[in-house]
Amino acid sequence: MVKESGETIEGLTGPGCVDDRLKVHRHSFLEEAYRAFACDRQDPTRSADMKESEFSHLLKLIYYQRPISRTALSEQLDLSLGYVSLLVKRLQEDGFLVEGGFAESSGGRRRIHLQLNPELAHLVGVDFGTANIRVVVTDFLGKVLSFEKSPSATYRGKDSSLQLVCDQVNAYCKEDAAIRAIGVSHSGVINHEEGTVLFWPRVQGWERVPIKAILEQVCGKRTLVEDSSRTMALAEQQFGEGKGIKNLVHVSVGMGIGSAVFANGRLCLGHKGLAGELGHITIDEDGELCSCGNRGCLEVFASGSAMIEKVRSALRKGVISSLTAQEGSALTIESIVAAGRAGDRLSQNVISEAGTHLGTALADIVNLLNPQKIILGGAVPQVAQNLLMEPLMLSLRQRAFSHSVHDLEVVVSRLGEEASAVGAALLVAEKVLEEELRRKVDR
Fold first, then answer.
1. Per-residue pLDDT averaged across 276-293, rounded?
2. Could you tell me the pTM of the whole model?
3. Is the dihedral of CA 431, 436, 441, 443 positive or negative?
4. Domain, as residue range, for 265
5. pLDDT tens digits, residue range 227-238?
6. CATH code of residue 130
7. Of 48, 379, 387, 393, which residue is the least packed, with the fewest Cβ within 10 Å?
8. Mapped to the 3 state alphabet, what secondary structure does 69-134 carry?
9. Each residue of 43-73: b (16+ CB within 10 Å) or e?
């Protein structure tokens, strides 16, 4: 039986879907840290002075397993409590760590929790979407300190949109001297190593746009750029339905459709970093032309933009609907869902058809990857909820292998619209951590 909500579960085997260019994330950082400490203990030339690598690995352990006690660190790393306490004391003195509350205790002395100092640095996260640009400032642990939302106005051209982002980020940097870096999530096709938008389906003039270089030059801060589906998934792992789960598939459905796959804690990027383009798998070989140049892509059938266009097309043909007065630019996913909830048959049918197609695509994912949890994010599932989920789950159950689907959990994200921007801020946190540690060690 498919679980549409419930407890956190673990699973997803099959390292074959993980190639050599995987970006190691949360759980593989932990494995790396365990190996590093084991090698240090076996190294006969190891000096009495604590190594920078030890501080770095310990900080990563605390960052990804926060909150955690000294005793738990000692047990996990197989190091003496005294030595761990010595490392922790040095990191506290340098401002990296703070104590925060107590661990649960069944008796005896309660263990004190450790976490990274939230004020170690502030970070900017930018979510660059087709409809809106969202900018957040967070503390080092991802708590949102400021949030701003503006129309993307992509019809004015890329220079106008980029200028808007640069102005917003520069204003925040002038107000907050603690800001150290910028993370950008973008709904186009990204070369994350170069920080370049290769192209942006549905938006003209965004071929090979070097966002990283532009922001670093204009704002003077380290910048990283990543696909918006992946940054949403990072936020889910830290704060949402993906917290504590090694293996999941995150599917974002907004004006476009994307996905991020985590297998055993590893984010699948693919050979050139282009993995996860779920919106461009073929649903109908002879279907309508997609913005990517192919025909019959999932986005043509199930994205927010597809749903809006189908309603507009039906209204132009004279289909009776309560949305007739909104045939123009005022038509939105929110208005379509509201009409559907009020009994509008056109809206209900359009949403149901989108859900069916999404369920078919998710069944392919389940049959290919055998995940144990799928998280649906983005405006469409978060607004439509059961209107979308009921046909989606019916299609998924019908088309996926029963043994793969009986304990599968499919949930709608509970994070807010700033999730992708927060994930973008988290993207740069580790780089800032390494830089801060190197700076203080070199002093």
1. 91
2. 0.81
3. positive
4. 243-412
5. 999 999 989 988
6. 3.30.420.40
7. 48
8. EHHHHHHHHCCCHHHHHHHHHHHHHCCCEEEEEECCCCCCCCCEEEEECHHHCEEEEEEECCCEEE
9. eeeeeeebeeebbbbbbbbbbbbebbbbebb
